Structure formats: structure tokens, C-alpha cells
Amino acid sequence: MWHTPEQSGVASVRHRVPVVLMAVAAVTAFAAFDALSGKELIILGALVAGPGIAAGAGRPRAVLVVGTYALTLVNVLAWWPDEIWGSVQYIVFNAAVVAVTGLGMGIAAQIRAVERAGIRAEKHWRTLAAVVEHSDDAIVATDLHGRLTAFNAGAERLYGLRAEDMVGTAVSAFAALATPPDAPEPSGPEVIARITAGEVSVAFESVRVHRDGTVKDVSVVVSPIRDQRGAVVGVSSVTRDISAQHRAEEKAHQSQRMASLGQLAGGVAHDFNNLLGIMLNFIDFAREAVTAPQVATLIPDASPDLGKARLAGERAVDLTRQLLTFTRQDTIHPTDLDVNASIAEISAMLTRTIGENIKLITGTPAPAGPALIIRADAGQIQQVLLNLAVNARDAMPDGGTLIIEASLADLEDQQPSLNPAPAGGCYVRLLVSDNGVGMSADVASRVFEPFYTTKPKGHGTGLGLATVYGIVAEAGGSINVYSEPGMGTTFRVYFPLVATAVDQDAVPAAGPAAAPPDGHGFCVLVVEDERVLGEAVARILRAGGYRTLSADSGPDALKLDAESGCDLLLTDLIMPEMSGRHLAEKMLARHPGLPVLYMSGYSDGLLGSELILDEQTAFIEKPFTSARLLNQIGGLAAAASTTTSERSAGAGTG
User: Fold this and answer.
1) SS3 16
2) What count of Cα atoms within 13 Å lies in the side-chain half-sphere of residue 11?
3) What residues pair up with 414 in beta bridges, in sequence order?
4) What's the whole-model pTM score?
């Protein structure tokens, strides 16, 4: 404990002994003795002792009262029985009483000032002691002989030790209990030597151990304790638990690392998508060529080989899409969807994916329970389920049980165990749990980092769980993982519950894909800074019956349009000199109503807030197939033709 000092001696005496009463009694006693002695023995001079005694009370008014009382008695006794009224002796006695009274009042004032200063100092000391005692920091004091002299409540909490047990204990014994042998800090003798040499304080970071074995990161500041002469008589240490601060800093550093990797991955994915577009489209051109009877006979293995090459390219497309999802640069189409329906829809595929030696258990929704509706991209939710299921499968090489279920959950604001920290409210909780090999705490803390994997080389990209994290964060949700080695792993994913869902049954089901319409000479201006990809796109369009103009930059496209004009603009979104958005704005200023189709491997924020496409923006994601491109171009061309016809009909009627 941090003890307070006893009250000052002067104040104690003043409270214990009625000094003023002693002064009055002394004056009264001397006056009575003088009265009884008559003219034979005059001792009026002794009455001056009263104000002098009263001065010890430290109360100037009390001294004045006692002095007045003594002066009154001098005058009365001088009249009778001493009969010295008006004499020199009389005047001397009066003057002595007045002088001693004045001097006593001055002394009392000084004593009172000293007492008040002592009270203020004592109050300040008590306040400081209370602050020290109730501080959250651990404050420990030691003398120069290596003994603990103070141990506050903060130290009791930090170390789990009692002050009454520690005060008087040797510093070495305390250090053996609270400081690990390998703690990164200067030794005790070194710190004391630096303090006695004149350093104002010694600060460092280290670790401390609680009585229950918990290791805590701490910051320590050691300062000298000096006596009134300024000599060092001991040292005090203020130790603060900074474990939470270190966790927050590590979390911030991890977020920065993931953001940096995300920017790198997004740029790589964009360029890679361009290359994949070139590869896949030219593979398709080659397959069309080798399917001709005369070529197929000469090279019978060409078409199957090209098919395998295309399959590898499609796998690369999937990998790139995972990169874009992780970096939140993928184009998403959120809808209101039932999580239980998504689980039921993907269950059959999961059963085939995880293998027969793993039992899949999916939670059955209550018949009368509320629908678990969230707003997210349906394909991305299935990807979350698939990635978590594959992760669970790899953790159960000898078989096991995989549980997937959804339920409602109420969350409070800023729960530290969830990432990203959620806002409070009602959520849909998606639980994916396995009884596999589990993970250590160190591995679990890094599972959402991109490219981090514990799988053997060639068996994992390290993007599966990073992709899950990106999807969940994009949907406004949170995720956490709990795992113990040998006990399995449980992922809990939280998505905000949608109170009122859009009726998805009202949306008509899509029929079988129709053949792309013919272009009928419709002129398309293709703007792509990757020239080879631009050639492939133009070749697809020409094969579909369109006329094409090709440019590899915005300024070149504007020049071509000024020379030849066009019926539709197909432009890459991200280009060095002029973005596709800027080019489209200039083209629309020239040709109001011109159909525009954007294409990109990622949109980099140029398609609107959070990269969510609105209904007015036409967009095709790279890499794309020829059929998909021709269908989208055909739809825009047909809509433009209809609008032109309506305008012409309206003008003719007018």
C-alpha cells in the first residue's frame, strides 16, 4: 500500500492542549496572587506572560483577547489594591502588556501561516498518494539497499501480488517472480548506476509475468527518489501494460501489409487479364481453324490439345478473379439472397468436392423461423462456402465431419475478436466447422493474409481465405476463426441481416442462351491500349458482322471518330493517357445517346462507389468469350437502333 504521513507535530499539539485556556488561567492566577498580596508585593508584570503563552496557539485573535484581558486586570489592580495608578510603574506595566500582546500576535500569525502551509502540503501529499495508489500503472519504489518500499494497487493488478507481501522484499526476489530471465531490458544494477550518475529517468520496453503465468508487454520508466537535500535515496518505477497497444499496432501493420499487397495484386491482375484475354481468344481462333476437315485430318490432336490449353487459361481466370475479390476490385452484383438456400444449392457440389470420407452436415432451417436474408453477390457467397469447405477438407486428410449452418446473431459494437470490427445490430451467422488437425494461434492469426499458406509447395496459392476475407468485408460483414491443434477449426462469418428482401421470385428465370445477333455492318470503335488484345476483339466483331475501327488510346480514338464516325464505343476502362470514362464523356458530348460498353480486368473505382454497377452502365469483364462479347454488343446495338427508329417516327409525325 501507499501510506500517508502522520499530521504535523505543531498541529497535533495545538489540537491536544488548550493553549488559550492555559494563557487565561495564567493571567488570572497572577492577578489573584497580586490582589491577595496587597501593596507589599506587586507582580503585575507577570501578567504579560498571558499573551506570550497564547501566541503558541497560532491564533492572533486569541492573543488579542488574552492581552486585552491582562491589560484590564493591570488597570484594575493598579487602582486597588496596588494604588499605583498614574505612576511610572503603572505606565511600564501597561506598555509591557501592549508590547507583548502585539509581539504575540505577530508570532501567532507566523505560526498560523506555517501550519496552513503544512496542511496544504499534507493535503497535496495525500492527493498525490491517492493518485499513485489508484493509478492503472504499476508504481513500485525501492531504496538504494535493494528493498521494496512501496507497491501500489496498480502493481497488485499487473503482477497479481499483494502489497503487504512485497513491501520490504528484496528487489531480486520480486524480479524473479515478475520478470522473465530473457526479458529484453537493462539489468537492475545498471539502471541504478545510471540514475545515481545523474540521468533524469531510464525508459525501456520489456515483458512482465502475472502470477497466473500471463506474459504482458510493458513500458517501464525508472526515476530517482531524492531527499530534501537532493540526494538520491531510492528509485521508483512506473510500469504500464501496453499489450493492447501492441495488438492494435500489429493489427494496423497487418492492414497496411494487406492493403499494399492488395494494390500490387490488383495491378498484376489487371495486366494478367489482358494477357489471358489475348491467349483465350487466339486459342479459340486456332480451334476454329483446326476443326476444318482438311486440317483435323492432318493434325488430329490439335483440337484436344488446344482445349487443354484453354482449360488452363480458364483456371488462370479463376485465380485472377480471386485476386480481384481479395483486393475488392472485382465487379460485383449484390442481390437479396437466402443464406440457407445458398447452402442447399451448393451442398451437392461440396459433397463431390470434399470426398466420401468426410461427412457433410448442413443445418436445417426451422419451418417457422425467419428467412436469413443478406445482401451480397450470390456467386461470391458460394465461393466463400466453397473455399471454407476446401480448407476444412485439407485439414481432415483421414476423414472427419464438416458442419455448415446459418443462424441469427445479435452483435455489439466493435467486437475485438471479429475482423473487420462490426457495427452493432442483427446479423446472419454462417458457421463452418471441422474436426480436423486444427491450427496454432500463430497460424490462425495469419490465415487471412494473401499468399500465406501452410500447405506443401504446389498444393495451395494462399489466396483462398484471403478471398473469403475480401468478400466478407465487401459485403459489410465480419469473420473470426477459432482453432486448437488436434481439436479442429471453426469459422464464423457474420453478414448484416436484411429486414425487407426484394421478391426474387418476381424476376423471370433466364432461358437458354440465344445465338449472338448479326452486326449488319454496325460500326464499333474499339479502344484498347493492349494492341494484340484490341486486334482479337476487332476480329471477333468482324466475324460477327460488324465493321470496326481500332485505336490504342483516347486521343487516337477521338481522331478516328472525327474522321470516320462510329455507331458504338467499346473502350477499355483503364488507359494511360485518357481513361475510358473520360473518353466516353467526350464522345457523348459529340454524339448524344451513343452506346458505350466498358471493358476491364478491374474497374479501379471508376464505375462508381464501391465498384457496384448500376443499371445504366454497360460493362464486360475481361477476359470474355466471343459469344458474351457479341451478345452484349448486339443488345446495345439493337437498343440504339430502336431508339433511332422511334426518334425518326416522332420527327415524321411532327
Assistant:
1) helix
2) 12
3) none
4) 0.45
